[in-house]
């Protein structure tokens, strides 16, 4: 996805992608990105700042494949808009 880098998790039920490629003057960190994704794309993520990693968000995949696909489609659309309009 544009602006997002992620490594394959080692057996956990979450991923921790680097999202600094989505930052702009309006969205300078993972806290503001998490709020933006919740309001604009209806995706709940945990900001990495709570883990001491402000350039990351935490995404859980402990749900159905259908919900994961829907969430990833929403994230891809949101990321595309942020990179394009950033």
Structural class: mainly alpha
Q: How do the helices and strands follow one another from N- to C-terminus?
A: EHEEH
Shape, principal axes of CA atoms? globular
Low-confidence stretches: none
Report how far apart the termini are.
15 Å
Strand percent estimate:
5-15%
Strand order of the largest sheet: 1-3-2
Short description:
With 86 residues, this protein is mainly alpha-helical.
Could you explain how this protein is built, in words?
The structure is a single chain. By secondary structure, the protein is mostly helical. It has two helices and three strands; from the N terminus they run βαββα. A three-stranded antiparallel β-sheet has the order 1-3-2, with helices on one face.
Could you give the topology of this structure?
Layout: E1 14-15, H1 30-41, E2 46-47, E3 57-60, H2 65-85
Antiparallel strand pairs: 1-3, 2-3
Structure keywords:
86 residues, globular, mainly alpha, 3-stranded antiparallel β-sheet, 3 strands
């Amino acid at each position: 996805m544009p602006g997002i880098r992620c490594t394959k998790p080692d057996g956990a039920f979450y991923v921790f992608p680097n999202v600094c490629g989505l930052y702009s003057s309006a969205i300078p960190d993972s806290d503001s990105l998490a709020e933006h994704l919740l309001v604009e794309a209806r995706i709940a993520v945990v900001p990495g700042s709570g883990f001491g990693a402000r350039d990351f968000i935490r995404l859980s995949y402990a749900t159905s494949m259908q919900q994961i696909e829907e969430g990833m489609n929403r994230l891809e659309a949101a990321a595309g808009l942020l990179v394009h309009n950033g």
